[in-house]
Amino acid sequence: MYPGGPRASETGDKTLSIGFIGLGDQGAPLATAIAEAGFPLHVWARRPASLDAVAGVAHTAHDSVAGLAAAVDVLALCVSEDEDVLDLLTDGLAAALRPGTVVVNHGTGVPSAAARMAALCAAHDVGFLDAPVSGGHAGAVSRTLTTMVGGPAALAERCTPVFEAFSAHVHHLGDVGSGQLAKLFNNTLMMMNQANLEEVLAVAASLEVDLASLVAVLKNGSAGSFTLSALGEAITAENVEHLSKVELLDMDLFAAAMAERGAPADAVTARAVAGAEGLVELMKTLTK
């Protein structure tokens, strides 16, 4: 990823003040990594208890969104849905940011919403990047995420040292929305791979093959994949129902994005949805 020289995070401007909103399962380890990389971290949360997630690192907590916005050079958002981001921006956040600030949306959404966010920011001379991440909570904690960036190249370059604080790979894909499009394709292919795995293991189960041993072989063989590696690690009996629901929500986003662009993706969508829907039963089979 970084042939011929150091990572940008090793040489980047550590005087950039980074704001963070969204200290949940994914956002908290991102914010922690940013602070530990040496960037001044500023945070705000609707619930004061959420700030406990960054208690172990240096940070400045703000009582209001406006106070946070006025103090930062880059504002990272890691909230659940596009509408949440749009509500924040229109409810005074964009207006409170200093001209030249960059807003980064790390949540997963549709490209058209990213374009709306960029326009809201541009009205206040604020830059915008969509930068969803792949790797889940485990990748955030281990700082091995893949970050997919859409937006102006100069802004992406400016923020790359921040992204590298929690990423193993940072890819600039092109204009605003291209990061979200890449994330949706990434998620869709992962779920299609789940469907393949579910079908293969169903056949193996009908032959009374020891599934645990087979999965161990497949993980180490040429059939190995992220989906296989995640079984029993990122995907467990305890969290599989939640993950399945999140995947189905992601497929709603994918279907909407494809419909907006008139892409012939019905068969791909159906296959991925089948993979998401079958995940719970797969884990039940493997943990019998």
From TrEMBL:
Domain 3-hydroxyisobutyrate dehydrogenase-like NAD-binding span(s) in chain numbering: 177-269
Domain 6-phosphogluconate dehydrogenase NADP-binding per the UniProt entry, residue ranges: 17-174
Enzyme Commission (EC) number: 1.1.-.-
Top-level class of the enzyme under EC nomenclature: oxidoreductase
Keywords: NAD, Oxidoreductase
Top-level taxon of the source organism: Bacteria
InterPro entries named among the record's database cross-references: 6-PGluconate_DH-like_C_sf, 6PGD_dom2, 6PGDH_NADP-bd, HIBADH-like_NADP-bd, HIBADH-related, NAD(P)-bd_dom_sf
An example molecular function term from Gene Ontology annotations: oxidoreductase activity
Record-stated family: Belongs to the HIBADH-related family.
UniProt-recorded name of the protein: NAD(P)-dependent oxidoreductase
Organism expressing this protein natively: Amycolatopsis rhabdoformis
Lineage of producing organism: Bacteria, Bacillati, Actinomycetota, Actinomycetes, Pseudonocardiales
